[in-house]
């Protein structure tokens, strides 16, 4: 969004949808020529507040750019991400950019616990939902009895990992319990995993976990997340073409800390103003008088900067290997494991479908950050890897259970038909026979509930 009064700093053009091609051009910039133009698959304009804040002569340029809404963004890429997950792939969604640029909003939508528009406070689709809530809503809507969906959610702050699913927000050193699972994807064993049965389970668990995040007000964002937040969503389901074989897809949603240099950050005071419709606008009024608060944020920021720099180096090495055609399936990238972010994600990124969402600020004031973000995205955009599917044959016990479940379903359907036939007879049929059928019906219901619970884990 436009948050300060300034000239227009970017022009975003979606040149075609199939195949998707777009460009970002820097305006009113010290950069010129090819250095001011960046080509991507998608470039979305969503600076909704520009009419109030934009200064200079580019109002017509801003008006000509197509204003993208959250449903339009989901329509563009969300279904593809969902399809990759359901096919048993590891899928990584990266949200990268300056604090306050819209990273979290793109992926989640509003997520502040005190906001009435927070996505998890709405049980039905909402116009401000980001990619994840839209996708998860459809996922749980389509969920079958023999699917298992589970979730982890944690935050990396400096050298620790905070388990946001833990009631006590348990913290450990980031290296503790970090190891690869049976499919070769990195996991943190001590972080809690919860099985989710319904859409309401998911949004309620997320709302509770999200309230445990470490956040602080900086001049870039009144609720800046102080570290990298990662949520994993595991989906285990029978393969459509072979129910005896299970597909395990895993979605990594990585909402990274802001990319601003640590030395630029200060702990900020804000004023909040609400319009007639109740919409709130937060305006930074300057640094907090307690300088120790700023120092703490800057110390955190140094580690955040180093971890993001290491991730940028990793993407550069991947891009170089792809360009030279030396990146082979099962290979790795040496180094790049000094900080949590790369250590946790680098081997997964080498065998996952990765979607990178880079958010930029539209004002000229932020050009140096915009240029760095677009450079990172440009390096990452050339990377193409073959994803590894996580599949396994069902165990004999699991196959037997699934057969029993199918048998119970057939018996239940037959029982309903017998009930309907008896009730349709004149006089309601034999009361003793009806009572016996109703008893068997209740027994079958109980058996089915037990079988479904066991199948779901």
From TrEMBL:
A Pfam family that the UniProt record links to this protein: Kinesin
Coiled-coil regions listed: 398-454
InterPro entries per the UniProt record, alphabetical: Kinesin-like_fam, Kinesin_motor_dom, Kinesin_motor_dom_sf, P-loop_NTPase
Residues of the Kinesin motor domain: 1-383
GO function terms (MF aspect): ATP binding; ATP hydrolysis activity; microtubule binding; microtubule motor activity
Keyword Glycoprotein on entry: no
GO biological process, one term: microtubule-based movement
Keywords assigned: ATP-binding, Coiled coil, Motor protein, Nucleotide-binding
UniProt GO cellular component terms: kinesin complex; microtubule
Residues bound to ATP: 97-104
Family (UniProt): Belongs to the TRAFAC class myosin-kinesin ATPase superfamily. Kinesin family.
Listed PANTHER family: KINESIN-LIKE PROTEIN KIF15, KINESIN-RELATED
Protein name: Kinesin motor domain-containing protein
UniProt source species: Zooxanthella nutricula
């Amino acid at each position: 969004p436009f948050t300060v009064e300034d000239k227009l700093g970017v022009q975003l053009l979606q040149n075609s949808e199939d195949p998707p091609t777009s460009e970002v051009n820097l305006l009113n910039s010290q950069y010129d020529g090819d250095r001011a133009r960046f080509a991507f698959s998608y470039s979305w304009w969503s600076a909704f507040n520009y009419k109030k804040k934009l200064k200079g002569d580019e109002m017509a340029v801003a008006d000509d750019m197509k204003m993208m809404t959250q449903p339009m963004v989901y329509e563009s890429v969300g279904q593809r991400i969902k399809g990759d997950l359901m096919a048993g792939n590891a899928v990584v969604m990266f949200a990268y950019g300056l604090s306050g640029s819209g990273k979290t909003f793109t992926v989640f939508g509003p997520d502040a616990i005190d906001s009435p528009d927070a996505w998890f406070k709405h049980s039905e689709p909402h116009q401000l939902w980001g990619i994840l809530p839209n996708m998860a809503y459809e996922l749980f809507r389509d969920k079958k009895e023999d699917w298992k969906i589970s979730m982890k959610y944690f935050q990396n702050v400096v050298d620790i990992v905070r388990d946001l699913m833990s009631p006590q927000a348990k913290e450990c050193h980031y290296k503790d319990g970090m190891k690869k699972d049976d499919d070769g994807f990195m996991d943190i064993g001590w972080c809690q995993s919860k099985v989710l049965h319904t859409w309401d389970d998911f949004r309620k668990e997320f709302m509770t976990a999200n309230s445990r995040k470490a956040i602080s007000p900086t001049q870039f964002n009144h609720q800046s997340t102080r570290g990298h937040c990662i949520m994993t969503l595991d989906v285990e389901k029978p393969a459509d073409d072979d129910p005896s074989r299970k597909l395990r897809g895993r979605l990594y949603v990585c909402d990274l800390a802001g990319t601003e240099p640590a030395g630029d950050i200060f702990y900020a005071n804000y004023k909040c103003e609400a319009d007639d419709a109740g919409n709130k606008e937060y305006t930074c009024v300057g640094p907090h008088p307690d300088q120790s608060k700023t120092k703490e944020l800057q110390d955190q920021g140094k580690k955040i900067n180093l971890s993001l720099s290491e991730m940028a180096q990793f993407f550069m090495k991947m891009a170089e290997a792809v360009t030279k055609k030396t990146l082979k399936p099962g290979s790795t990238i040496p180094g790049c494991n000094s900080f949590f972010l790369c250590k946790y994600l680098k081997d997964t990124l080498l065998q996952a479908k990765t979607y990178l969402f880079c958010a930029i600020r539209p004002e000229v004031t932020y050009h140096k950050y915009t240029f760095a973000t677009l450079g990172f995205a440009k390096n990452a955009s050339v990377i193409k890897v073959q994803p590894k599917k996580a599949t396994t044959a069902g165990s004999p016990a699991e196959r037997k259970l699934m057969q029993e479940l199918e048998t119970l379903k057939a018996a239940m359907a037959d029982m309903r038909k017998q009930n309907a036939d008896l009730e349709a007879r004149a006089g309601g049929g034999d009361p003793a026979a009806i009572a016996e059928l109703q008893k068997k019906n209740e027994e079958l219901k109980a058996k089915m509930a037990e079988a479904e619970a066991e199948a779901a884990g």
